[in-house]
Amino acid sequence: MTTPETELKALMLASQSGDAAAHRRLLERLSRHLRAYYKRKLASFGKGATEAEDLVQEALLAIHIQRHSYDPAELLTPWVHAIARYKLIDFLRRSRTSRADVPIDEADDIMANDDHVATENSYDIRRLIEKLPRNMQYAIGAVKLEGLSVAEAARRYRLSEPAIKVSIHRGLKALADLIAKEVKS
């Protein structure tokens, strides 16, 4: 009998070997797990499905970019959980969630320095972002890469806050599509 860990690990190994179909299945399977994880975690902070979906897309993008760093000798789910947790911590830091709102066992992690993203991966992300329409580039760059709030990004680019949110949401989906196309080729 196979376990979810075994199935996901097999998909990851096939993905690392260049199997685009396995990579798509891996991301689809992980997206369901990540969505449930983020909805559960964000509910305790009064955040909703939109923020959860954005985090799912961010985590999937990081998994795609970092897949070369996964060590096949290790379990996959703790590796995925670490990425998901870092994305959650980054989101909470960006949204300026009060330290009082954070469960005590996670408070230090949220305020810790974020040094888990390798420099070479930021080039890949920026290269992909450059393929997006300008408003999506501005919104994702300001909020997701620079850490500005939605309100700050809206003021900077003279757009409405809803326009920034929609641009981020659509931009993250478009990035996921670009990644899928790159994996196929």
TrEMBL record:
<protein>
    <submittedName>
        <fullName>RNA polymerase subunit sigma</fullName>
    </submittedName>
</protein>
<feature type="domain" description="RNA polymerase sigma factor 70 region 4 type 2">
    <location>
        <begin position="124"/>
        <end position="175"/>
    </location>
</feature>
<dbReference type="InterPro" id="IPR013325">
    <property type="entry name" value="RNA_pol_sigma_r2"/>
</dbReference>
<keyword id="KW-0805">Transcription regulation</keyword>
<dbReference type="GO" id="GO:0006352">
    <property type="term" value="P:DNA-templated transcription initiation"/>
</dbReference>
<dbReference type="InterPro" id="IPR007627">
    <property type="entry name" value="RNA_pol_sigma70_r2"/>
</dbReference>
<keyword id="KW-0804">Transcription</keyword>
<dbReference type="GO" id="GO:0016987">
    <property type="term" value="F:sigma factor activity"/>
</dbReference>
<dbReference type="InterPro" id="IPR014284">
    <property type="entry name" value="RNA_pol_sigma-70_dom"/>
</dbReference>
<dbReference type="InterPro" id="IPR013249">
    <property type="entry name" value="RNA_pol_sigma70_r4_t2"/>
</dbReference>
<comment type="similarity">
    <text>Belongs to the sigma-70 factor family. ECF subfamily.</text>
</comment>
<dbReference type="Pfam" id="PF08281">
    <property type="entry name" value="Sigma70_r4_2"/>
</dbReference>
<dbReference type="InterPro" id="IPR013324">
    <property type="entry name" value="RNA_pol_sigma_r3/r4-like"/>
</dbReference>
<dbReference type="Pfam" id="PF04542">
    <property type="entry name" value="Sigma70_r2"/>
</dbReference>
<keyword id="KW-0731">Sigma factor</keyword>
<feature type="domain" description="RNA polymerase sigma-70 region 2">
    <location>
        <begin position="27"/>
        <end position="96"/>
    </location>
</feature>
<keyword id="KW-0238">DNA-binding</keyword>
<dbReference type="GO" id="GO:0003677">
    <property type="term" value="F:DNA binding"/>
</dbReference>
<dbReference type="InterPro" id="IPR036388">
    <property type="entry name" value="WH-like_DNA-bd_sf"/>
</dbReference>
<dbReference type="InterPro" id="IPR039425">
    <property type="entry name" value="RNA_pol_sigma-70-like"/>
</dbReference>
